[in-house]
What does this fold into?
Amino acid sequence: MSRTTKFAAIATAAAAATATVALSASPALAVTPGTFTANLNGTMTINAGVTATCTSSTLKGSVASNGTSASYTSATAGGCGVTVTPSGLPWSGSFSGGVAKINSFKMSAIGCTYSGNLTGSYTGTNFPLTVSFVNQTVTKTSGLLCPSSATVTAKYNYTQP
It folds into this structure.
């Protein structure tokens, strides 16, 4: 075998090995799978023409084994000046590439119910995470004399036990 042929064979084998490693390596997890608790950091504002400012809120759930899919199984809101009731749980969600999502988010206050998807941002690659949801629009799903939409702004500190 000539030097050129040997070099080509070695280069081809090295490229194939690199491709095999790249294709068979599992992708990095967005976050560690398992249960989480998210506590409000500051205040949550829900603006539906009149602003409700909540001083406490806790979200609980879990991240699936893939490290990206999440399920929110519990949610509370307090200190809002009016009763704010989370509903429609569980909510689904995800964590990936600095983006956190809560799908099918649903809350009611003063006879108005709003629902929608929240998209927030976080930095870092694992828990603990601080997730900020800023001016996320949710639409009215029920209620008389309620604005057709509301915005939600909140920052949560996500931790795992």
In short: The mean pLDDT is 85. The two ends are 61 Å apart (CA to CA). The longest helix spans residues 3-24. The chain has one helix and eleven strands.
